Amino acid sequence: MLTLSRKIEEAIVIGNDIEIKVLGIQGDTVKLGIDAPKNISIHRKEVYVQIKDANEQASKLNIKDLEGFMKK
Prior knowledge:
33% of the residues lie in helices and 28% in strands. By secondary structure, it is an alpha+beta fold. The protein folds into two domains: 1-38, no CATH class; 41-72, no CATH class. A three-stranded antiparallel β-sheet has the order 1-2-3, with no helix packed on it. The model has no long low-confidence stretch (mean pLDDT 90).
């Protein structure tokens, strides 16, 4: 893991087209601005984990689950 220190209005760049800027610091909360192409999904980690878990559950459906769904 790369660890960096940044001040307000300072940024880091990932690749050629992603910029993460520190917009503010209030207590123990840091506000970040992320500038990235629209085709790149950006989620808070807890939301990303929920999406990943839901996709894994959906991939475990078997044909009987689908047949029951189609009869409704």
